[in-house]
Amino acid sequence: MAPDLITIAERFRLNGTIRNVFPYGSGHINDTFKVLTSEKNYLLQRVNQEVFKDVRGLTSNLVRVTDFLSDKIAEAQSSMEVMMPIRTVNGTYFYMDDESEFWRVFTFIEGSKTYDRALNVKIAEAGGHAFGWFLKMLSDFPVDTLMETIPNFHDAVFRLNNLKRAIENDKAGRVKAAQNDIAFALDREAEMMAIYQAGQEGSIPVRVTHNDTKINNVLFDENDKARCVIDLDTVMPGYVLYDFGDAIRTYANTGDEDDPDPDHISMNPDLFRAFAEGYLGETKEVLTQSEIDLMAFSARYITWEQTIRFLTDYLNGDIYYKIKHPDHNLIRTRAQAQLLKSMEQQSGGMETIIREIMKG
Ligand code: ADP
Ligand code: GN1
Ligand code: MG
Hints:
Layout: H1 5-9, E1 18-23, E2 31-37, E3 41-46, H2 55-76, E4 85-86, E5 95-96, E6 102-107, H3 121-137, H4 156-169, H5 179-187, H6 194-201, E7 207-209, E8 218-220, E9 226-229, E10 236-238, H7 240-251, H8 269-283, H9 289-293, H10 295-315, H11 328-345, H12 347-359
Antiparallel strand pairs: 1-2, 2-3, 3-6, 4-6, 5-6, 7-10, 8-9
Helix pairs in contact: 3-7, 3-8, 4-10, 7-8, 7-10, 8-12, 10-11
2-acetamido-2-deoxy-1-O-phosphono-alpha-D-glucopyranose (GN1) binds at residues 27-29, 51, 212, 214, 217, 231, 234, 257, 306.
């Protein structure tokens, strides 16, 4: 039976009388709703428990990180905002319904907008500032106290093994149709281990990272200034390269993540430079040389990782990402592969841009 959304929203300490609850946003993972009351608006979400196995641990991360950020914002009198979790009438930060579904509510950031693509360099630079600010603000948060909400999330070996298992099992009978896509991904296996290896050797530090830095996880104001970093479920210990690389995957792409037309897709060097300028403008002092050295590569790594994540889900029969049609994950796979090719053609130029920005 469909859940009664108003009854669920009533479990939380909201100001005013609830008037309406309706689906909202375009995330691939959680179910998101906007709640309108007589006084304020809120954001209600049902957490995807196929993806997040430990919602209690996740909530503990989220509450501590949002409290920490909100204190920092007040201290620095920053114009950035943070979406704060709202307590239930029982005082907890989630409500579990009769079907064991977990629900939570956040403050709604009014008058903000999201993009699926950076329409110009101003948006890309603002996004860079937002995610750079986020990393910098959390650089003194005790990283060991955060649990891994999705273990091995950006781990190259884990992702590759998942792909290989999906090929072997061929659950949806799609391996044949995806043979070229599989070959494209596996051809790059060896070179894509660089960040994983640096992590194993301990030459790059573990930091508090966002881990899902795509463009629509930043809210912008009407002048395209970044207001708020959202979607904090994957904030956990990680490498900065995952955040930078994942952001470039959307901020510097001239096409959509699922663009069916390869001619729309390319890595735009101006958008890349703009995002990197914003990001490094905030984080230059915090980052180490070994991180900087892998920055341009990180965009290729994450784009490859996303290629194989979409491909794995296609082969498994679409069990992870929300899809709009049966070939959606295959189209996404091909769009990411196309973006990766464009990055490969421009890898020297991307390295130069990072060096130029670092020189100032
Ligand atoms: P998912 O994990 O499924 O990606 P998100 O947390 O990113 O879900 O939320 C989905 C969408 O809802 C976002 O892309 C954004 O448009 C909108 N959104 C999320 N949080 C807020 C908020 N606090 N205020 C306003 N809009 C929000
Ligand atoms: C998911 O939740 P959302 O839509 O912001 C995914 C990311 C992928 C992204 C691809 C928890 O992000 O890792 O990069 O889709 N989030 C999770 O669009 O798996
Ligand atoms: Mg999201």
